[in-house]
Amino acid sequence: MNPITNEPALYLKDKDLLVIADLHIGIEYELSDRGISIGSRVRDLIERVRKLSKKLRVKRILILGDLKHAIPRSGYRERRDLSDFLRSLEGMKLYLVPGNHDGRIRKLVGDEIDILPSGGVVMGSVAFAHGHRWPDRRLMKAKTLVLAHTHPTFSLRDRFGYRFTERCWVLARPNIEILEERYGNISLERVVVMPAFNPLCGGISVNEEGLIGIVDKVVDKKDLEVFLMDGTYIGRISR
């Protein structure tokens, strides 16, 4: 399982699988309602996914939650963009582990994507869940758990005091005490938190705000390793 340099995506060579998360198709229309008009960016998402799949020569894509954005119902423009996204990836085998933004997704996508359990899926020694709810018990027997949901970023300041953020990867040990209290004996050795694929999503600064929700409980916050998307190792932080 390898992160792809400069992309918020994972590549599982032995599974012929590309993993991405938090596409939030349709988020542009919420921004428009707030006075930020940028137009649809679904073609950008399509081209990035196509480029990655071509580069890696994969035919299978796992979307780790939040394929769409609006809760609970999607408007016409979001439904149109979602349809364009799926239609443009015909020939690819698509899987979705539903996230908290994916309500009613089955009615929207029909048979164009395989809907997996929202509690997550296990592929060999690696388990995947979105991170908005407790993972299913069977995921605790994997060695690595991959989560998303929290849109991790890292906040930096230049010498003039200007603050900016970069999407990042977070690697952590599992919180053994909390997980074994809930699940009994577990086999997990590490947890990986993915950055959001859609750059419009914003994010939660891990060095200023930490993580959120279930993800915050699953990881050992005393020992988080942070990597920027270009591979730069920020170091270990404690929250």
Question: Can you describe what's shown?
Answer:
The protein starts with a strand and ends with a strand. The chain is globular. The relative contact order is 0.16. It is built from six helices and 15 strands. 23% of the residues lie in helices and 28% in strands. α2 (42-56) packs parallel to α3. The protein is α/β, with parallel strands linked by helices.
Spatial extent as radius of gyration: 17 Å
Strand percentage, roughly? 25-35%
Mean of residue pLDDT values: 92
Element order: H for helix, E for strand: EEEHHEHEHEEEEEEHEEHEE
The number of distinct helices, counting runs of at least 4 residues, comes to 6
Give a short overview.
The protein is an alpha/beta fold and 239 residues long. Helix content is 23%, strand content 28%.
